[in-house]
Design a protein that fits this description.
Elements: H1 11-15, H2 17-21, H3 24-33, E1 36-38, E2 47-50, H4 53-60, E3 65-66, H5 74-82, H6 98-107, H7 112-116, H8 119-134, E4 138-140, H9 141-146, H10 148-158, H11 165-176, H12 182-208, H13 214-221, H14 226-256, H15 259-267, H16 272-282, E5 290-294, E6 298-300, E7 303-305, E8 310-313, H17 315-319, H18 353-370, E9 375-376, E10 399-401
Parallel strand pairs: 2-8
Antiparallel strand pairs: 1-2, 3-5, 4-10, 5-8, 6-7, 9-10
Helix pairs in contact: 8-10, 8-18, 10-14, 11-12, 11-14, 12-13, 12-14, 14-16, 14-18, 16-18
This protein binds protoporphyrin IX containing FE (HEM).
Length: about 400
């Protein structure tokens, strides 16, 4: 950890492998100095990172902070446009009134009541995945369990062919991993084009022959134009699995590294829903957080923020704020009143939160029941995290034995 934290944190700071391996000590060091820090990301721009719970939560719901790329400086708008922004025309990148329109039509499919109806099918998929590994004695929990579960569920919910899941995995990885070099940039361009062609074809198919699935509901609603449709479908597919994989993977790792908490959860399975909230707080799937753009001059925690400045809210840091949660660096599956912003806050609060919670609760309950003596099958320092700089905190692999 750097001894002398620079005042203006360099871009590289957030992209270093050390930071990706364990960002929490650095967040704690920053938070001790103040809730808001200037950061050189994007390089050369006026940008800040918020590392406490109170100001982070407030920033996420502040109408003076926009999600629309058009609120950003000209060079940024151009850069996004040139990058062929398949993900720029959906609710996540919109302010009201567009946000309200784009979210409303999808929201109907994601109410807690509708999601609860998926329970038996999610249990069945989970059981099948566990049947596949139970007799083997070892498994790679990300590839064998944490990835297939949410991708199969979101594909079925949307009405997208499950057989194409490895394609989606590659495309969505290419889109959310940072384009740090030419190779990565080329991969992103290819993935964008492939996703666009894929969804354009699917939209045409469902328009001609609609079914009961979400793609059909969206294409027949006539509330979204074709660009918005492609962008919304890409968002749902990506958000629908990239995040939940990490909730299951990071949560399981936290348990494997804390035998007392693991034993407690096994002895009291009724704590699983509570434990899932704790996993969300303890090692947030979207750890690096999300950004907003100031639409007017303002202050956050007394720090002046100019119109057009970028404000990153560090979701992982907010959950570890000692003013929000006592002993924040300890895992406590029985913790009450867990405070986190791991699903965001305000109008962009995660649309898929009921689904992600249900999937994770079923996954942990069945994993602990079927594989109670699960243990890590490598040294802790052999674990590797996905490409540094990714917004998600994602294990490359989680080898386990049982
Ligand atoms: C928004 C996290 C699962 C769909 C968000 C936001 C966060 C988040 C932090 C807010 C971003 C912001 O304010 O800028 C997570 C986590 C998940 C998860 C941690 C799993 C553990 C899902 C799933 C789906 C989904 C399963 C869909 C099927 C969305 C959508 C939005 C969103 C559509 C945009 C909402 C809006 O802009 O109004 N998610 N998500 N998410 N999430 Fe999730």
């Amino acid at each position: 950890m750097p001894k002398d934290m620079p005042e203006n944190l360099p871009f590289e700071f957030f992209f270093s492998p050390e930071f990706s391996a364990n960002p929490y000590p650095m967040y704690a060091e920053l938070r001790a100095k103040g809730p808001v820090h200037r950061v050189d990301f994007p390089p050369g721009a006026e940008a800040y990172v918020v590392v406490d719970y109170e100001h982070g939560r407030a920033a996420l719901a502040d109408p003076r902070l926009s999600k629309d790329i058009n609120s950003g400086p000209e060079w940024f708008r151009e850069a996004v446009r040139d990058g062929d922004p398949i993900l720029a025309d959906n609710m996540l990148m919109a302010d009201p009134p567009d946000h309200t329109r784009l979210r409303k039509v999808v929201q109907r499919a994601f109410t807690p009541r509708r999601i609860e109806l998926l329970r038996p099918r999610i249990e069945q998929i989970t059981a099948e995945l566990l049947d596949g590994i139970a007799g083997r004695g070892r498994a790679e929990l990300i590839a064998d369990f944490a990835f297939p579960l949410p991708i199969v569920v979101i594909c079925e919910l949307m009405g997208v062919p499950v057989e194409d899941r490895e394609l989606f995995r590659e495309w969505s990885g290419a889109l959310i991993d940072p384009p740090i070099d030419e190779k990565q940039q080329a991969r992103k361009v290819r993935a964008t084009e492939s996703l666009r062609v894929y969804f354009t074809d699917l939209i045409a198919e469902r328009r001609a022959d609609p079914g009961e699935d979400l793609v059909s509901v969206l294409v027949t609603s006539d509330e979204l134009d074709d660009r918005e449709l492609v962008s919304t479908l890409a968002l749902l597919l990506i958000a629908g699995h990239e995040t939940t994989v990490n909730l299951i993977g990071n949560g399981m790792l936290a348990l494997l590294l804390d035998p007392e908490q693991f034993a407690l959860l096994k002895s009291r399975p009724e704590l699983v829903p509570n434990a899932v909230e704790e996993f969300l707080r303890f090692d947030a799937p979207v750890e690096r957080g999300t950004f907003r753009i100031a639409v007017e001059d303002m202050e956050i925690a007394g720090i002046p923020v100019g119109k057009g400045a970028f404000v990153h809210v560090s979701i992982g840091a907010a959950g570890r704020d000692p003013r929000a949660n006592a002993h924040p660096d300890g895992l406590d599956v029985a913790r009450q009143d867990t405070r986190h912003v791991s699903f965001g806050h305000g109008i962009h609060f995660c649309l898929g939160a009921p689904l992600a919670r249900l999937e994770a609760q079923i996954a942990f309950a069945m994993l602990l029941e079927r594989l109670p003596d699960l243990r890590l099958d490598c040294r802790e320092d052999e674990l590797s995290w996905r490409l540094s700089g990714s917004i998600v905190r994602s294990l490359s692999a989680l080898p386990v034995a049982f």
